[in-house]
Amino acid sequence: DIWFSKNVESKAVNKEGKIAPDASTYLNAICLANTGLPLDSVQSILKALEVEMGRKKGNAFGLVAIDLDLVVWNGEILRPWDVAQSYYQECFSNLFLDMNDVGSSMS
Predict the structure, then answer these.
(1) pTM exceeds 0.85 for this model
(2) Binning pLDDT at 50, 70 and 90, where does residue 66 land?
(3) Between the chain's N and C termini, which has fewer beta carbons within 10 Å?
């Protein structure tokens, strides 16, 4: 099973939570999936997808073609900074509202 949130736009934010005046706008979404794969395999797949979609080594910060991060794994928060961001919270809320809508329409 796999579910995707609605897209949410946000400005680039540094680790101190500051937005630069010329900050780029990013499109964010989150995905919830069930898999039998181990953590390191999923992380490798995400990195391979980034490369396939045009991400280059050396541009870890700043404008990138795509950024795929594994934020939570089996209930463990791997990236607490991301979870605390408003775009993540909005995506998360939208995802579960949509999942509840699907579940209620199937009963």
Answers:
(1) no
(2) confident
(3) C
Task: Kindly state the tokens that stand for 45.
Answer: 């797949």
User: Which 8-state DSSP code applies to residue 5?
Assistant: P
What's the length of the chain? 107
Q: What is the pLDDT of residues 72-91, one digit of tens each?
A: 999 899 999 989 998 999 99
- Name the DSSP class of 48: H
Q: What is the bridge-based pairing of β-strands 31-33 and 25-28?
A: unpaired
Integer angstrom CA distances of residue 56 from 36, 45, 73 = 29, 16, 25
Judging by DSSP bridges, how do beta strands 31-33 and 72-73 pair with one another? Answer: unpaired
